Amino acid sequence: MASARKNLIGLPRAELEAWFASFGEKPFRARQLMRWLYERSELRWEAMTNLSLPLRQRLEAEASLDLPTVGVRQQSSDGTVKWSLDVGRAQLIEMVFIPEERRGTLCVSSQVGCAMDCPFCATGRQGFNRNLTAAEIVGQVLLATRELGLVNGASRVTNIVFMGMGEPLANFREVTRACDVLTDDFGFGLSRRRVTVSTSGLVPQIDRLAKVSNVALAISLHAAHDELRDELVPINRKHPIKELLSACWEYASATNSKQITFEYIMLDGINDSPAEARRLVDLLRGHPAKVNLIPFNPVAGTGYNRTPQQRVDAFRKVLMDSGIVTVTRRPRGDDIDAACGQLAGSLDNLVRVPMSEKTMHTVNRV
Ligand code: SAH
Ligand code: SF4
Q1: At residue 337, does pLDDT exceed 80?
Q2: In this structure, which residue's CA is closest to atom 6 in ligand 2?
Q3: How far is CA 269 from CA 138, 233, 296, 305, 327, in A?
Q4: Ligand nearest to the CA of 113
Q5: Does the CB atom of residue 200 touch ligand 2 within 6 A?
Q6: Which residue out of 197, 200, 362 has the highest number of ligand 2 atoms within 8 Å of its CB and is therefore the one to mutate?
């Protein structure tokens, strides 16, 4: 995939215009190219007929349109599609498409691995390898758009969530450049509400994000008091709940957002009691907050288990009775190991743990 030519995928419009200007081309060339790439998913220079032949020849010589390479594509019985992608040097990442009635959500990765070390998460257990580039992030979306044409009955990508591998705000520059392309009218043209950055709680970066972007924000809260959150989401030791929540409310007001989404994994006997639900109410009531209760997807060796449905319902009732909108997520793609937190795709990891064994441990077979 590596190439001496400049990869133009994922370049924000202003940067692409500057690149064209550097060899005397007008800014509208950037817009023309972006339309070919993101509206028509066209990667062949020769098909871009509104660019002159000499310009196309020059582009061919000096630029490239590189996407990650598809390793494996798997489709779940529930329609979820998971791709493992090769991003060079034996590094694999994963992305997942989740079709629903009125939308199609693509879950993208922002890093190879993750350094945040949350003890329940397959990606966290694999450790950190490197940040992805904006080209590799936007490349995932472009690739999915092209690939979905090949999958029977699959719908389009209407929403993007940064809930694949990695902590997006630890890769601030590349993630925000990618968001720029996703929300640009000449890029994928997605409304900012349809692009969600999910974070474990990097407070300074939340503040910075409000200054450069206004995409939707999701917080992986998972606990309603610091002692427990210190354990479940170790970054909490640095940025405790109070500090995190005040950054959230500021983000909502600075970006004029309707609400922040709080993700809460239900871990059997750990964070799922009615008392914890009431603590959560105390934190969120009166603020622009919505809660997603996530069924835990078992990861081998973590010692955590999934909360039984009855207790999830009771927890949700406490929140709903207090006026907090709360959605219980359905697990998707369990049978292909594509549910949240089951993404662990580095080749290192596969070498250490043979595939059959890994699958046996991490697939949730309920
Ligand atoms: N690093 C970011 C985004 C990627 S993780 C973050 O933590 O927000 C995406 C979501 O999957 C997070 O809410 C994360 O807590 C959740 N997750 C991780 N492991 C999981 C598991 N085993 N079961 C269910 N959800 C999990
Ligand atoms: Fe990283 Fe998110 Fe997993 Fe925590 S839950 S280890 S932040 S990917």
Answers
A1: no
A2: 124
A3: 39, 17, 12, 8, 20
A4: 2
A5: yes
A6: 200
Q: Is 94 a catalytic residue?
A: yes
User: Which range has highest mean pLDDT (124-128, 249-253, 298-302)?
Assistant: 249-253
Q: Is 340 a catalytic residue?
A: yes
Q: Is the CB of 344 under 6 A from ligand 2?
A: no
pLDDT at 105: 94
**Overall fold of domain 7-64:** DNA polymerase; domain 1 (1.10.150)
Sheet holding 216-220, edge to edge: 69-75, 81-86, 92-99, 104-107, 159-162, 195-199, 216-220, 260-266, 289-295, 326-328
Burial bucket for residue 352 (CB in 10 Å: 0-12, 13-18, 19+): exposed
Q: For residue 154, is pLDDT > 60?
A: no
* Secondary structure class of 17 (helix, strand, coil): helix
Question: Model-level pTM greater than 0.90?
Answer: yes
Domain 7-64 and domain 88-364, same fold? Reply is no
Within a 10 A sphere around the Cβ of 337, how many other Cβ atoms? Answer: 23
User: In this structure, which amino acid lies at residue 75?
Assistant: Q
- What is the residue-averaged pLDDT of the chain? 89
Both structure tokens of 141: 């979306």
Ligand sitting nearest the alpha carbon of 175: 1
Q: What DSSP string runs through 28-89? A: HHHHHHHIIIIIT----GGG-TTS-HHHHHHHHHHEE---PEEEEEEE-TTS-EEEEEE-ST
Give domain limits for the chain: 7-64, 88-364
* pLDDT score for 240: 98
**CB of residue 118 inside a 6 A radius of ligand 2:** yes
CATH superfamily, domain at 88-364: Aldolase class I (3.20.20.70)
> Measured in angstroms, how far is the CA atom of residue 277 from the centroid of ligand 1?
19
Beta bridge partners of residue 217, listed in sequence order: 197
